[in-house]
Design a protein that fits this description.
The protein is an alpha+beta fold. The longest helix has 19 residues, at 642-660.
């Protein structure tokens, strides 16, 4: 058996976009794997009852797929060299191919002169297509070749500047989004027909069972500052008439059609961002919303892991039930809401984490992370979960895994906190080992017992790993998640008391050689910790926040998130509150050697957050180092370029080894 190495994630098969055929007999998904070109290969895999096998070239770059019928899959990929060259020159183009699941080569179905982000079938040759529409540049559709070349020349000139006249003006992973919109279209053989306004921004949509109507959330004509609240708009796909389904805008969490009515989860405008929405049945004809059930948990929030990316279906109406994934404590299951009675029941009781699923009739399949295992496909058979894929079995057979040991403790406020400790691989009682405290992002996310590559690398390198879900985390309801205006207080106390509990339970932890690390909120908390205690000998702060005032005015979500999380009504009048909760305020207290890792295309926590903290620590004589990853965003540790993921983790391990292994 081998120890898990930093680069071993390149051997993992990541799976997503799981979909059953219309008759429920066959299963398709996208399988991703790192390649030697510093990228990921993406192929369609199909299971016809005898295990998953690649349907398309394993070295491909499939962007999306749908079932066209029980035997045919429609997918998008840029295969032709000329098409690739057009896109490189600035053309917007999406190419679709069909392939029979029983054999044969893929055939070109059609091309769309737009960037299609999602496709859904209405009839045999008619689709709903969401596209990215850029109001800041002319469309190439219907133009002559000479006109196209002139437009492309102007676009090339425009790369040297950016006009900004709305909020948000950029978004993590998408770059500048000013005047860019997600637009709904009807796609036929004659081309695209837009069915939402050119300035309308669609966040999600659902087709009615009869496929004559479409419901969408978003803003049909956004103001210069986009709102967090939305109505639900009903589009008649024949007349294109549009009407509102709600009396007034809400903070819509999820929705779907149930016959001619809508099942909607929403919270009220003005409520804190972390507030979960209850379930309502909405009659679009009367706009009446009747509460069906209360649910104090997140819909569709998976547990944390750096060993998966992509997603899939997290909610769906089937018959008289609304099925959805939801986290409770540190486990995620598929719950079923009875749309007649409002009763909610757990249909899987998985004991692990279900990220996504699909249901067709009596058949349910899901992407499931069993504790300690990489994601595989499972099927619910007779109330039990049965594994039907083997994408990562060989890796688990040949590599040593250190099992997280779960325990709870009660903090000084009488609140129970979940936590885990991973022992070093080949742990020997009586020996002392360095330890690291890992802190998750969010803060409203949660650690689970899902496989975590980074933690296993630490264990393979002779470390204890400690991690927990302090107050502010998801999985225990609104009250537990509410740390607005309390950042660095009760959450800090929980983490420090958790470390105390770990030291008491595990005498093998070397108290004199402990480190702390985290990303996003975990990066904020790492910055906060080194300014408030000297118990850690090394720290690694990733994609962090160091100063709440600039964060509020620079982050893609800052203009509403900063104010909400700091618990203030007016950031100008209460600027001192933001400064009090900013780690930069306490930089003079820092003695801990600190490594800062950040990506310069991270628009969630922009790179100046790292530059500020680095400069302060350097001026104050603290041993510090900053590594900036060019072109990467907030998701580097989960879906960044493979070589940069390796560089990131190498920097972390080397920094900890330098200070924690005397």
């Amino acid at each position: 058996m081998k120890n898990i190495q930093i680069s071993d994630f390149k051997h993992y098969r990541f799976i997503d976009s799981l979909k059953l055929s219309p008759n429920g007999k066959n299963t398709a998904l996208l399988g991703r794997k790192a390649n030697d070109d510093n990228d990921y290969d993406i192929a369609i895999f199909i299971d016809k009852g005898q295990g998953f096998k690649p349907l398309t070239n394993s070295k491909g770059k499939i962007a999306q797929f749908i079932w066209k019928d029980n035997d045919t899959i429609l997918f998008s990929e840029v295969r032709d060299k000329k098409d690739k060259e057009k896109i490189e020159k600035g053309h917007e183009l999406t190419c679709f191919y069909t392939i029979n699941i029983h054999g044969g080569e893929a055939e070109l179905a059609f091309k769309v002169d737009a960037t299609v982000t999602k496709l859904e079938q209405l009839t045999a040759d008619k689709y709903i297509a969401t596209t990215i529409y850029n109001n800041a540049r002319p469309s190439l559709q219907g133009k002559t070749e000479a006109e196209i070349q002139e437009i492309l020349k102007e676009q090339e000139k425009a790369k040297s500047y950016q006009v900004i006249d709305e909020l948000p003006y950029w978004f993590n992973g998408k770059g500048f989004t000013n005047k860019k919109r997600t637009r709904l279209n009807i796609l036929t053989s004659t081309g695209l027909k837009p069915i939402t306004h050119e300035l309308a921004n669609v966040s999600d949509y659902k087709l009615s069972p009869c496929k004559k109507y479409l419901a969408y959330t978003g803003d049909p004509a956004p103001a210069e500052i986009h709102s967090m609240e939305t109505n639900i708009y009903i589009l008649d796909l024949e007349t294109l008439e549009e009407k509102k389904a709600l009396q007034e805008p809400k903070r819509v969490r999820a929705f779907d059609y149930w016959n001619s009515k809508l099942l909607v989860s929403f919270s009220e405008p003005g409520q804190p961002l972390h507030t979960h929405g209850h379930f309502y049945i909405v009659d679009p004809a009367t706009k009446e919303a009747v509460k069906l059930a209360e649910h104090d948990s997140t819909i569709g929030q998976p547990g944390n892991s750096d060993s998966k990316f992509g997603g899939g279906i997290t909610s769906k109406v089937e018959g008289d039930y609304y099925y959805f994934t939801s986290i409770s404590g540190y486990k995620t299951d598929i719950l079923a809401l009875d749309l007649n009675t409002g009763a909610i029941q757990n249909t899987t009781n998985s004991g692990g984490n279900i990220d996504f699923f699909d249901i067709q009739g009596a058949r349910t399949v899901m992407g499931f992370m069993q504790p300690g295992k990489l994601m595989e496909v499972y099927e619910s058979i007779g109330g039990n979960l049965t594994k039907i894929s083997a994408f990562n079995d060989e890796f688990h057979k040949t590599h040593m895994y250190s099992t997280p040991e779960y325990f709870t403790f009660e903090n000084t406020d009488g609140v129970e906190i979940d936590g885990w400790v991973i022992k070093p691989v080949n742990y020997e009682p009586g020996k002392k080992y360095p330890a690291v405290l890992q802190i998750h992002g969010g803060p409203k996310t949660a650690y689970t017992e899902s496989y975590f590559h980074e933690m296993q690398v630490f264990a393979s390198n002779g470390y204890f790993v400690m991690y927990s879900n302090p107050r502010g985390s998801d999985g225990k309801g609104n009250q537990f998640a509410d740390i607005r205006g309390k950042y660095g207080t009760i959450d800090y106390d929980d983490l420090m008391q958790f470390v105390d509990a770990c030291q008491a339970r595990y005498p093998g932890i070397d108290d004199d050689n402990m480190g702390v690390l985290g990303g996003s909120y975990g990066g904020f908390m790492t910055n906060w910790i080194v300014g408030h205690t000297h118990r850690f000998n090394a720290a690694v702060s990733m994609r962090s926040i160091s100063n709440w005032m600039p964060f509020t005015f620079i982050s893609d979500i800052g203009y509403y998130f900063g104010k909400d999380q700091m618990g203030v009504d007016d950031v100008w009048e209460e600027a001192e509150k933001l400064w009090w909760h900013s780690p930069l305020k306490y930089a003079k207290n820092v003695k801990t050697p600190t490594l800062l890792l950040h990506s310069d295309a991270d628009y969630r926590c922009w790179v100046p957050e790292a530059y500020q903290f680095y400069t302060a620590l350097k001026l104050l004589g603290v041993d510090t180092r900053l590594v900036v990853f060019h072109g990467e965003n907030h998701e580097l540790s989960r879906s960044g370029k493979p070589e940069l993921r390796i560089k990131r983790l190498t920097e972390i391990i080397q920094w900890m080894d330098r200070y924690l292994k005397p």
